[in-house]
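Reply to dn_fold:

You asked what the input looked like. This is it:
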Amino acid sequence: MLKKILMGLGALAVLVIGVVLYRTFTYGSTPVGDRVELPDVPAISAEKAAGHLSEAIQFTTITLANGDPRPGQEGPWLALHDWLEATYPAAHAAMTREIVPGTLTLLYTWQGSDPSLKPILLMAHQDVVPVNMGTEGDWTGAPFKGDIVDGYVYGRGALDDKGNLVGIMEAVDALAASGFQPKRTILVQFGHDEEVLGSGAKAGIALLKSRGIEPVMAIDEGYAVLDPSPLTGDVMGLIGVSEKGYVTVQVTALGEGGHSSMPPRDSAAVRLSKALVALDENQMPADFSKPPVSDLLSASAGRMPFVQKMALANMWLFGGMVDKNFSKSQAGNAMVRTTTAPTMLVGSAKENVLPQRAQAAVNFRVHPNDTVADVVQHVKDVTAGIEGIDVSVPEEGGSEPSPVSPTEGRPYAVLASVAEATGDGAPVAPALVVGATDGRWATAITPAVYRFSPAVLKPADLSGFHGTNERMSIENMGRISTGFAQIIVAMDQGD
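and this is what came back:
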């Protein structure tokens, strides 16, 4: 009897091993989406594009709060608009330019010859975040001079997002100067206040919607070719197909106030602390089974170590271990679940007074697998057993995660092909953008919204994002400009 049991267990073990190995070797064997042959485009000088980026950086289009720039402070934006017109004469001759009413957002239209073809929409933004006071001297190149040092353009906005803005205009100007005439209408929108909620881009999209315009695709900032990718340790292109939503939940603890010399054992501050610890220890669940996460992992598998690939291919067996490993990394954790971040705390106004109300703002970046309502219910469920806790959402509410854009069809195929060419044959994967971009507004007029820039970015480049020594290489300015030209022409060749 024992022998039969052991033989049965052995056979089961062989079967399990066989299934694990089969799934491992076949996992991620095909790329996500199709590919196209990229067209020839006019040569664009990387040095000239970098010089133009240097000039664009010198316009201090800084936004600090919703509503910026305030009346009377529009000068840098208006000067940037004049500079664009003077710098890109062929583009401005080919396109009509509008300023979206009530904003400083620019909307260009290059009318195509075939009205049956849906247009493409290229997006970037004009504004930049400020530089922290006292850190200006830490920069290799001054933050608003556009200094070019050792092959890099330094300055606020080089990466976010004037590099893309300049690259788009370089592409359009070169195509127009070459005599290219698009069949498919090309729309270009440069939001003026992306860093402070993006009301300009929202208004621009609303204007297009009022005209019945439904682009076949929209492209905004978000991802690029990473060297290396944190997933594979190798070069890899990432195309953002969705971005997270946003909601801040107010968690309030009520308790007995009074003098701190005679405190209760369960004060409002203690109750609030318990609630925050409970939320930290009970994160919202990860889900590896749906796009974009499932597609990202599958497309990355070809360059992963064998053990890592085996675990991802067999989530039925190693799911808990995979979740635990992703959760250890800030970037990995943000990719696979809705994140929980206590940010602002309010309690007593004096050190010897017990608060009757202790309050925390808890910011959640909402994964596409969840909704804002899911988040609020999660907070209520986790804190339900703690006395005196109230959960509420501010009047402005939150924003839902954007829909996941398709990876089937020509738009994604064109972007994936450009990403592969940009990365010299590197694999390409769809991915989730964990921050917010103006692209989220474009989901109101097209289901195909992608976040990608044809650049190769290294960790040293990414460290300048909203920080010190923000920069863009001269070589990348050539890649971005050429890549956008390829996107325009390749999309003009499809239905």
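The mean pLDDT is 94.
Hope that clears it up.
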